[in-house]
## 1
Amino acid sequence: MYRVRFHGRGGQGARVASKVLGTAAFLDGYYAQDFPLYGAERRGAPVAASTRISEDPIMERGVIPEPDIVIVMDETLLQDPLTMPLSGLKPGGIVLINTTHSPAEAKAVYKITAQVITLDITKIGLDMLGMPILSTLAGGVAARIVGLSEDSLKAAVEKVLSEIITDRKLLDKNVAAALYCFNAITPAKIELKTIDTNKKKSTVISLPFEPAEISSPAINATGNTPLRMTGNWRVFRPAWNYEACTRCMICVARCPDGCILVNEDGYPYTDYDNCKGCLICVGECPTNTLGKVMEVHAKKVTG
Amino acid sequence: MLTGNAAAAWGVRLAEVDYIPIYPITPQTEIIETLAGWISNGVMDSRFVTMDSEHSMLTAAGSASATGARAFTATSSQGLLYGFEMLYAVAGWRVPLVMVNVSRGLSSPITLEPDHNDVLAARDTGFLQIHCETCQEVLDSILMAYRLAEDERVLLPIFVNLDGFYLSFTREPVEVPDVEQVRNFLPLYQPKHAFFKASQPMAQSAAVLGGLAYSYFKYQMHMASQNALAVYKEVCDEFETGFGRNYDTIEGYMLDDADYVLVMTNSFSTLGKAAVNAARERGLKAGLLRLRLLRPFPVTDLKAAVTGKKAVAVIDQNISIGKGGILHSEIASCLYHEKHRPLLLSFIAGLGGKNISPDEFEFIINKMVTGADTEDAGTAQLLYTDTEWQEMGRLKGMAGKG
């Protein structure tokens, strides 16, 4: 069985990617199962999705704890302490990262020991679809890694997307982009090493009683919200050209997250630690002071 | 002389409750009318707020309780169901809200008279449940309920249940305790885990994902509810010392030497006791066990009371459609592992307040006697008489179904 886990951000298409892969595997005659897990639905929040592909009936459910393959659709998640996309990855397994880095750079920057394949899927999405939605593209690379057929991938994209979009041209572009990604990578061979069977067994305990002071679902700790920065959710960042700015403050009023502040000279500026990149400010600005610049989250490796 | 509703109001007044959000419904409304009258006259000092629905009412009551106020509310039947979502929520907040339910059968068809499908629908919510037979017991149980719910080993909300009409509108003598004596028994509520202080902010009722935290919180509620069994005994003893009336988790009536036992709850138990008297006159060793505490379920007390008896007939004034009597199922599961478990018979009776006549009780007791001889409990039986069937025929005729 191949167990593939996708990690992305809400709106990026991790869930649909897992469906494209599951459908393609089904069409190739395998047993398949796909499953998303996410919290309160909002764009930008981490999402994980799992696809299982097997020649035998699948006797598993839920999130894949020990994947053979991990598809990282947003590389900022690699440094997210709550997501931990590589957790449980089997020795000898494969990680595909959506990044501008080369595999060697990615391995060095993110300290990955598993096999790494890299592809700048975001750029492909922007070039071929005109938007950073990566569902069919990530599905395409995953289909290649597990060795599914091109025909089934094409039919899977057609089937999955026709349930959620009506724009025929966009659907065709997705088919083309998925096939492009399918052929853009050189798949590594999955060489799973023997898994350590001396893993510590879990013991069932008797839960001790704790008074309501502890065991009611209340939070007494204060001031932890600012620790959760959301700036790495951006695909595009708002960029400022102060020569055109009239200090009208419309951007300040329209920012849904209070991420536009005003400096000593009365000019607005972005709190990039928390700005999620919704670009409402860019749309609202009457003087074209604000433009958008694509984020490159990958930090250049020096030396 | 007080009605069950007036007795409930007296309990609330003596408990010196801070906050009472309400919404009217028959047959509960008299409770809130009585409280409103006292607050309006100035003899009672509470904040009384009329709400737009039972859902809002329960939200307000639970929230007030979560700020450290002593809160009370009351409803019945359809109203309870309308607020049902909030029962689970409020119980999860671990706040000691005391709530009266005046039992009334559930629609459809709509009715006003009692059975217990309303309050028993809430048996899995985390609310504790005390069920009352007399008006005196209603007043006393509200005082005991606050003590039990506010105990740090428990901290769960609680229902005090009384039957609509048969208790809510029935007047009988009630002794109203002295407020100073009540203050001794029931001191001020001072929570450590639920409060409203600007200097000490807290977030109540966090969201959790993944099941790990959810399982912890839910099972802690179960353990707190289990703790309530021992705490109840302490509260019961103290109440008896202070007020001279004993209310154990179960009440036995001629139970100790009985061979044949009726199990009942709430106001119809009085009719069962009369039937026990009649059976004793016939020379049969009959007795009655009245379940008073339904959540937590008094498993140990129940087992001790009925093991070794020849036969036990559970009279369920409720019906789990597709299964049968709810209490019969619960009692059967308690007794499954007992070596000397009695024959356990199941009867459905008193739905929508239908009377249980002496003839029907005699039928039940005879079934126990023959069942014990033949070791056959038979199948569950609805108590419905030939005259009632004839009357139903007349009603069907009027409805054009002749």
## 2
Amino acid sequence: MLAKIGAKSLEDLVSYLPADVRFNGKLQIDDGKSEFEIVDYFKAAAAHNANGYASFLGAGVYNHYRPVLVDTVVSRGEFLTSYTPYQAEISQGTLTSIFEFQTMVCQLTGMDVANASMYDGSSAVPEAAMMAVRVTRRDRVLIARTVHPEYREVLATYTRHQGIPVDEIAYAKNGRLDLDDLKKKLTNEVAAVIIQTPNFFGLLEQVKEIAALVQSKGALLVVVFTEAVALGLIEPPREADIVVGELQSFAISPSYGGPYAGIIATHEKYIRQIPGRLVGETVDAEGKRAYCLTLATREQHIRREKATSNICTNQALLALMATVFMTVYGKQGLRELAEQNLAKAHYLAGKLPLVFDAPFFNEFVVRANGRTPEQINNELIEKKIVGGLPLGRFYAELKDSMLLCATEMSRRQDMDTVAAGFRA
Amino acid sequence: MIKKVSKHIVQNEPLLFEQSSPGKWGYQLPPLDVPPVDAASVLGKENVRAEIEDFPEVSEFEALRHFTRLSTWNYAIDLGLYPLGSCTMKYNPRVNELVARTEGLAWAHPYQPEALAQGCMEVIAALERALEEITGMAAVTLQPAAGAHGEFTGILMMRALLEKRGNARKKILVPDSAHGTNPATATMVGYSVENIKSNSRGMVDLEALERAVTEDVAGLMITNPNTVGVFEENIRKICGLLHDKGALVYMDGANMNALVGVARPGNFGVDVMHLNLHKTFSTPHGGGGPGAGAVAVAEVLKPFLPGPRLKRAGDKWAWNYDLPDSIGRVRAFYGNFGVLVRALAYVMAHGGNGLRQATLDALLNANYLRALLEPYYEIAYKAPSMHECVFSDDRQAKKGVRTGDIAKRLIDYGFHPYTVSFPLIVRGALMIEPTETESKQELDLFADAMISIAQEVDQNPELVKTAPHMTRTPRVDEVRAARQPVVRWKRPQ
């Protein structure tokens, strides 16, 4: 091969680089390791984490069982090691599965169109805000304080330099969005109002009432979800203009915060304003049904600085995990799964002093009864249980409270231990 | 002659929704160990949905067959060379998949107490250190989810530094050979974009750049090696030009596979850059994602990195949220941790010397293909190629055959096409990146295919223009898809 290119050694391939840019040192990285040593290293790292603990953490990331079929499917090299399906003729597998994903996201959320997935739920929020700004040609955004605090931080980062002022809407005594505060702040300059349901405290927001209010002022309602399992049971936010959310609950392991799969869904009329990749149905040269990436004129590789977003990558493999999960559970299973979550959470909540009085799905806020949430958690850790999320770091006024989550994975005996921990 | 493929049975398969039967399911849940609750009474009747209309209803085995059949309609690196330029489609080692699923890592919750997450933090710290070493930069953040997300993070930091110095400035300069994400990113950070033309050697035109760098310019976004696979030989001068005017240099690291162990951006004047861990560091593309877009910065930009940052607290790792100059979060939690695990496994498997060797092998493969194909295709620029080579379809266009047609014909020969019609500065571009993981045998087969197609263009251009002929799905009508968008299945009325 060297002879063919007229080189004497591999070093000749870089010898022409300017001397003052060439790196002549040796990278200070340990010598290459065998497969066995690599597996060992990561096992040791994992041993420094929590192992064998029951967990009652939720707050945007949920412990749900991952059916075996999910990894069986996504481990197939044809899905795992393929690129973005730009070459439709040899990518019909990925394209068809994304078309099914888009369909299931629509069915789940009550929307007409969904894209091929976003990086995650948090980054989908600013994308929805930017979309609402394009649609309404207004520039202000309101976001409920009951939206995941880290999602709100991401929105702040994205909007800072785009001339999109963001204001927050308070929550009422019952932990839901304060309708009076919304009315006060809902001016004719507002492009989008962003709420989350179930909200960060696990409570259902009054989507219908809020939608009527928001839309009467010509703004768009963006509804966020972080716990997709809830959609197996609760009425989807059909009145929303844009729905964004996180599908981590659908067989994507918590993996210390990522990778996950976000979604964005909306109505037909806004299809050309949606960011990211979209798969559409068409026909091949023989007239048979086929799929391809479509409406690319919205995207950065065609529109460059005028694109709807700079998004290029989506989360295809994670979206496929969610697709397999939704298929395995199906219409009946997703409902039963949601019912189990509801039952477990209400069993645990029934034994504890709740801070808010409103309907909740599988998360709820509990007061620490004269002690600190951290004290309770430390005692639970002794019993191999990771308790809830102390809320002080995100809501100073709730520093005496924690957010607990129960799922189908929560065992009754562990829930009893948690409840006893609050009484101690 | 087609050597690599032959006919093969392929199963047809309807959509899930079309094969659903009411009452079928593929799941198992244990019996509930707590009393059931009535959803309508605890949630309110109006909050409970009747059903998920038309959601799939299939058995477990039907689900498995469905997705297995779909998978056989895909091409993949596991089947052969995937020479997409700028995409770095290399072997995805399977040990990386295994270690990413290690239970204590895969099931770590981002909010579990720091004392119980030390292992995850160790992994993040180790990868940060390795990437600092590889790039020669002062610090790395692993928070961004993808390359474009990394660009956004980097330009935000540049803006924050300039604001701190008193003037955010107005413009970002972008060479005309750049990826589309570069200008789209600059816009999202509130900058206008000015394109800089390339010279006849495919490099940034120094004079044009010099004229463009004014006090209004915040920085330059440059890809190096650039998208024609050529190292910007004036990179030091270019960085100097920007720095002299108080502007900064962003490097798009999409092509870092050409530089690892050979040249370090931190040593040649780059202020901030991203790395696509799903390219250079072998994490699988997965049909379009997930990726991870690590961002490396020079000392001057460190205070502006997104938070939280890892810090040492005694003999433990801790997250530091007290970062007054930080640009804030670009996403929830700490990044695509599962992708980071895979990237670190790749680095560990290679070691310092192995990483450099991989780079040289990648350059060898690209230059070998260039040498084999140059007699048949017009090389876009004479300058030496690094990890990829770019041709134009000038010779074939005379017969009415364009780069897109050659790409489709390549499919019949059993290969995924190269990158088509990019970069935009090359008319009818064929952008070919074989990566280091291909053997001489596979490269020879690919070159044979390309040469055979060049001959077909001369003898029977129609054959090429109507390709592919061997696939399950012949050419797809993309225009129709865009004119009458159908992006979801609906039950026929």
## 3
Amino acid sequence: MTNKIDTDMVKHVAHLVRLGISEEEAQKFSGQFSSIIDYFTMLNEVDTENIPPASDITNNKNVLREDIAQPSMSREEFLNNAPQSERGYVKVPTVFGEE
Amino acid sequence: MQLHNLTIREASEMLTNKKISSVELTQATLQRAHEIDPQIQSYVTITDDLALEQARQADERIAKGENVTPLTGIPFAMKDCISTRGVRTTCSSKILEDYVPQYNATVANKLADSGAVLIGKTNMDEFGMGSSCENSALFKTRNPWDLERVPGGSSGGSAAAMSAGLASFTIGEDTGGSVRMPAGFCNVTGIKPTYGRVSRYGLISLVSSFDCIGPMTRDVYDCATVLEHIAGHDPLDSTTYQSPITNYTQHINKSVKGMTIGIPKEYFVSGMEAGVEISIQEAIRTYEKLGMKIQEVSLPNTKYALPVYYLLLFAEASSNLARFDGTRFGLSVSENAKDVIDIYLQTRHEGFGDEVKRRIMLGAYALSAGYYDAYYLKAQKVRTLLRRDFETALASVDILLAPTCPTTAFKLGEKTNDPLEMYLSDIYVVATNPAGVPALALPCGFSNNMPVGMQLIGKHLDEQTLFQVGHAYQQVTDWHKQLPNL
């Protein structure tokens, strides 16, 4: 496996996490990422044949409760933090664009 | 008598004996914070009015003798990643710089119920991503022992405030050493409880499967006191344990004679500062004198703890931080946005610092098609081995002892240009979080006039033994009583 993370790959992952990124930043991160990912390949040394992946460390089984409706945060309180709202709703620009 | 150096136990006794009032204690603490903190910069927000109001209520409770707990009237500060209703909660990030939660974290509710007095919120590495507090997007916190040095991270503000006497206790959060490492750097006591012992509801999550809220205090007894009041099952966090909370302080004086300490041999290899090693060896001898047996143990997968920790952190953080999208709360940058994606891109570009950007991009990379098996899945498998290491080692001993960091506090700017170098300073503290086991950090000496910390690591849900063994040490040493010159 090659660990060179070029600027195209950096821009690709930036888009996956919806992060705007400049050409300059992509170049800076590209160098740093390659050395960090290189460090991670150390894990290849470990024999994990028949080792299950960790999922829950509390040994909890399904945690269930009765589904009882209770008062939650009011619409007004919630909208106190919304950058833009209208008639009790969060307001955002077009969600489904041409892309 | 200096009010700001009192332990919780001492202050509580004076409050209930009416030698001081909570208003007096709170005023003295606030005054000291306003005087001293400009040079330390541990506080993001100081809540003067709220604190004095809570102090008045605490004094009423004490006067009536109703519902008085050991924390009633005691001023404390909380790491700024824990939601406080009506009090700005920033995570030391630009993206939350003006965010005011509309609800309390369970820990905030529990402390309010116990009558503790919130005097402020403390600085941290942005979203907990860092080991020096230098990744705060707001300002850098200084180590009270040497203002040219870092306090450690990510709970650097909580550690520095505690060390400088700017609160009677503080609340930190430990995702991979973020309570223990700064506790060691600043000469305070702090615990990362068992994962699931303290509710995470209202904690702004970094790594949901690692995050543990824990107290930072002047001594082990105080640490046990605070944990008793914040631990427990919470219906709002389904990963919390149902098992009841032990009365930790009641059994804290039990003798440690005949118990066994395990020394993980993999932790004592090259790279440790000489003065740190000397202090740790001295602490081991102290325990021998207390009648404990010392036994070498092995945690064979130790060298893989750091890559496992960071890989899983990147992955979980990349999805956890997806919530900061500029549409529902927090910073919103929407200039000329033609669609909602533009708001996401611009808000996150402006709102997140470099370390956050690095980590969420690397997380997306490790989770993406073609790399998932090699990185994320592999790390989860090695995580199973890390957990088994602790189970095996702790089957033959009562507790493990190790340093909290290979060095004492480093200088500001010393490691900021090399992210990987910074990650390596977490080498002794990260393994416990993927494994979920509890660990107590406490002062154990000085190297070149800077504090050295050690940690005691215990079995799942066995905080009791950690407190007992830590308390025994503090009965025969006075490292924890040493204070910085300010």
## 4
Amino acid sequence: MSEYRVQFEVFEGPLDLLLHLVRKQEVDIYQVNLTRIAADFLAYLGQMRDLDLEVAGEFVVMAANLLYLKSRELLPVDKQVVVQESAEEGDDPRWELIRRLVEYKKFKDAAGRLQHYEEHQALVYERRAARMELPTAPARKGAEASVFDLIGAINEILKRFKNRDDVREIEADAHTVSEKLESLRALLLERPRIGFAELFSQARSRLEVVVTFLAVLELTRLRQVHLTQGAEFGDIEIAAAPALTGEPEPPAVDIVPDAPVPTPLELPLSA
Amino acid sequence: MDQQLLFTELKYILESLLMAAPKPLSVAELRDVLGKAADEEGATEAARAFRKLDPKRIQAALEELSQDYATAARSYRVACVAGAWQFVTLPEFAPWVRAFLGVKNRPARLSLPALETLAVIAYRQPVTRAEMEQIRGVAVDGVITTLKERGLIDEAGRAEVVGRPMQYGTTPAFLEYFGLASLDGLPAADELRRIPVVRPEAVVTADPAQLPLPNTVEEKAAEVPATTGPVEQAVTPAAVSEPASAPPADAEPGQ
């Protein structure tokens, strides 16, 4: 079903044009002179033809309706009234037209208000709080790191120094386990949790790694630190144990690690 | 706790939830949150007081909160769009917000015929194509396709008349697009729903001076408002004063 869509000036249809003509009369819609309106309407249709615009069917229907109303107006007034009173209210074609016009006008106004809302809403911005990524509670209950986890971790770190060994300058053995033990204690008192890998990030030599590792082992043996692993193959975390944060007893260390540390250990710690 | 204090407390709780929410929240969702907070371990007496609230009270608190912002004349409001509450900035601050966030992602403005048809659907839903064409006086096929494509309207069952024509209604996207809280938030909804245009006591057409008024209606005719004002004002009182029970001129078949 294809309809001719005539848009003459700004009129969307015959009702729109009629409303325009009523407005031009500057009277209330109920007081409008239909005879004049009919004439104006036909004049418009004539103009449309002159402009070679095809007149859509609905305009023609409306024109016919208006002509009918106009012809009724030609009847003597008393006859008109008789016709009107004998008929059902809805059958009065004049009233029917006015009713449609009033109704159309209301929806046209409503459309105008919707347009206003549309413009308004285009300028309104909603607040959208970003969904917060709350940090998960510290993995206090992480699994205890096993000896094998520790071996794996230290091997990873030692790998970093494997190649460098060949070109490195020979240094004086600047690191001792007891020194490292002390600095590690100080560090843990400052920050209760340190990542295993992080601990070795500053190490410049294989020897330093080994010494640091021994210090960690020593602290673990003394139960001054607690080693946990949050996830499988995750980083091992070194946490201060109560024995460290409290008044630590001077550890009675008597282990003398063999192999990788060639320097004599200054153990126990100077208290 | 004092009822008024409790209500104020509720208002501020809802405010904090809307502030932190990543999306607009409906009254039902807010009620759920209040219930959850009341069931938390170690919930305070105040929190427990909001366990099973009447949704109307939440609604009232939200409305008062919204009013608070309007009274304070801040640059943003608490607004209800399509049944969900949220913070929104006012349009007059759009130039700055736009510079920061960019133009809102919205399709092109609707054409006038589309808006007219949408108005008919919004106020008269569910409504058939024929009823729309009756009101607008033109065919609406193309417009309906456009409105459907944009998700503003959808099919809403079939009318129980010959041919069982499809009926149309608006979608939640319609409310969002126009920033309406609900269909009740449509402007002049009472006037445009099913209440028919009521005939004035005397329809004056061709030549007012010549048309005699029947004696019986002369008195009432005087009540018809002055005719020099805008059309709307002349029509409204008559339309509104009519009892709502009057059968609509375009009553749906089968009612």
